[in-house]
Design a protein that fits this description.
Keywords: Metal-binding, Oxidoreductase, Zinc. It catalyses: L-methionyl-[protein] + [thioredoxin]-disulfide + H2O = L-methionyl-(R)-S-oxide-[protein] + [thioredoxin]-dithiol. InterPro entries: Met_Sox_Rdtase_MsrB, Met_Sox_Rdtase_MsrB_dom, Mss4-like_sf. A hairpin with a 5-residue loop joins β8 and β9. The strands form three sheets. The protein has a six-stranded antiparallel sheet, with no helix packed on it. It has one domain: Peptide methionine sulfoxide reductase (Metal Binding Protein, Guanine Nucleotide Exchange Factor, Chain A). By secondary structure, the protein is mainly beta. It is built from two helices and eleven strands.
Length: about 140
Amino acid sequence: MSETSEHDGTAEVDDVDPAGLTDEEWRERLSEEEYRVLRESGTEAKFSGEYVDHHPEDGEYRCRACGTVLFEAETKFESGCGWPAFYAAEEDSVTTTIDTSHGMRRTEVRCANCDSHLGHVFDDGPEPTGKRFCINSVAMTFDED
């Protein structure tokens, strides 16, 4: 199992099991904003993330906290929602739960490997899935093929 940690703004891979990390260790590995979103289920401001207008042809979006592949570049689409949007997640890479915070009922998306908050998924996306995964840029890194 691989784990990423922040070092001068880039992710490094090591062999730490994210399930065994303490809150203090997460704080050491992540920037304040990354920690707020990934570990405290925060949200970055609309249209502020580095991947909102990012449209590569090939590559993978990975969980910034642990390096798990979440989305393929080919599944990204322009939704106008203010966050990077994808119509499909990698099989078994995310989990979903009902989120009733902020007076709304939404489906939260979390990393299946490290349980970090990624964003939300809605049923108004394009074919072939009809899904719109709205994911915080700060929750991901991108690896170009």
